[in-house]
Amino acid sequence: MQFIDLGAQQARIKDRIDTRIQAVLAHGAYIMGPEVKQFEAGLTALSGVKHALGCANGTDALQLALMALKAGPGDAVFCPTFTFAATAEIVPLFGATPVFVDVQEESFNIDPASLERAIAAAKEAGLTPRGIIPVDLFGLPADYDAIEEIAEREGLWIVADSAQGYGATYRGRRTGSIGTIATTSFFPAKPLGCYGDGGAVFTDDDDLAKLMDSLRVHGKGGDKYDNVRIGLNSRLDTLQAAILLEKLAIYEDEIAARQRVAQRYQAGLSNVIATPHVPDDCQSVWAQYTLKARDGAERDRLMAALKDAGIPSVVYYPRPLHTQTAYASYPKDPAGLPVAEDLAGRVFSLPMHPYLSEADQDRVIDTIRKAI
After folding, report:
1. pTM for this structure?
2. Which residues does residue 76 pair with via DSSP β-bridges, in sequence order?
């Protein structure tokens, strides 16, 4: 059994992908070819956002966003501690300070109450609060109404890190359309992934879009040899855009299939273990299906039982960022980050992808139920 079965997806669309690749080989525009613009147009249509720009990867997407928003020394940028390192690692690159915030146990996403405490603490420490990077962890959108209220009151920008949640729905809004700037990743294991690295930034702001378009191509002005600012080399390859065009064409269908897998897991497991909760007015894209064991010992026992049955499982994330060597010295919510620390000790994720058969789902469910 595969944890994420990219082979099954490829078998479904292989002929179309092959045709797309051959078309790129025929026209030879390997960098910023026509497929890039076509794919960006598809992203804007799905998200309902004005501008979408492809870039080299999801981490670069965050970096482009912070460059455009001019984060710098003395600025405090607030990040959840329960996430992948990319969310926070781009902040110190600009001399800004990441300030770590706890998450909500039910959603795994940034806790607005912890965010408020962290903002107050940053001010007391002499930092200038500048922005928030919420994460749509495991595919579920963060609590954007609460975050936006805080951001508006404090004069902060929002960079919505939707590396795992692109295409999810929050109270009628699609991720990619939420935040001052939104970002995503097309890493192969993501719900919408390419066959290498790729990412994108999204915004409704014309000026920010124009700036990020320049920044992703060495700070170009009128052309690539007119450099008007310091930029990056962060373009989405034409071949990856061509592949993503065919994946985007089936993405809505795959999101629906992920819902069916999640619903079947929920029905089979919710009375024996803590399963994910999705509010009625939201939809996750289920980058991961993450369970909460009672404690670390139960998690170890359940993961061992799954392994014995030939079923893969993975821990996301075993250590919150504020406990890691690279980030331990940065400020955090003065009340501590107990929820993230607790979750890291007992969460684990099950196989989740649109092509997971009902028979395999039943194997997973039966194995966990017997082990409990």
Report:
1. 0.97
2. 97, 129
Contact between 147 and 158 (Cβ < 8 Å): yes
The mean per-residue pLDDT over the stretch 56-64 comes to 98
Give the integer Cα–Cα distance in Å for 216 and 55.
7
Instruction: Give whole-number Cα distances, 141 to 78, 134, 200, 259, in Å.
Output: 17, 9, 17, 15
Q: DSSP per residue over 257-297, as a string?
A: HHHHHHHHHHHHHTTTSB-----TTEE---S-EEEE-SSHH
The predicted-structure confidence for 14-43, as pLDDT tens digits, reads as follows: 999 999 999 999 999 999 999 999 999 999
- The CA angle 333-155-143, to the nearest 5 degrees, is 60
In the prediction, which pLDDT does 224 show?
Answer: 80
Query: Has 190 been annotated as catalytic?
Result: yes
- Measured CA to CA, the distance from residue 122 to residue 125 in angstroms comes to 5
Please choose, from the candidates 172, 216, 274, 174, the residue with its C-alpha nearest in 3D space to the C-alpha of residue 55: 216
Upper half-sphere CA count for residue 156 (Cβ side, 13 Å): 25
Q: Which of 37, 50, 70, 190 is catalytic?
A: 190
Q: What is the pLDDT of residue 111?
A: 98
At 241-259, the pLDDT tens digits run 999 999 999 999 999 999 9
Q: Give residues with Cβ within 8 angstroms of 285, minimum separation 6.
A: 139, 164, 165, 166, 167, 168, 191, 255, 258
Domains annotated for the chain, with CATH where assigned, are 6-101+109-249 (3.40.640.10), 251-371 (3.90.1150.10)
pLDDT band with cut points at 50, 70 and 90 for residue 223: confident
Q: What span, in angstroms and rounded, lies between the C-alpha atoms of 247 and 20?
A: 11
Strand partners, 80: 101
| Cβ atoms of 240 and 31 closer than 8 Å | no
Do you find a cis peptide bond into 317, omega within 30 degrees of 0? yes
Q: What is the pLDDT of residues 66-118, one digit of tens each?
A: 999 999 999 999 999 999 999 999 999 999 999 999 999 999 999 999 999 99
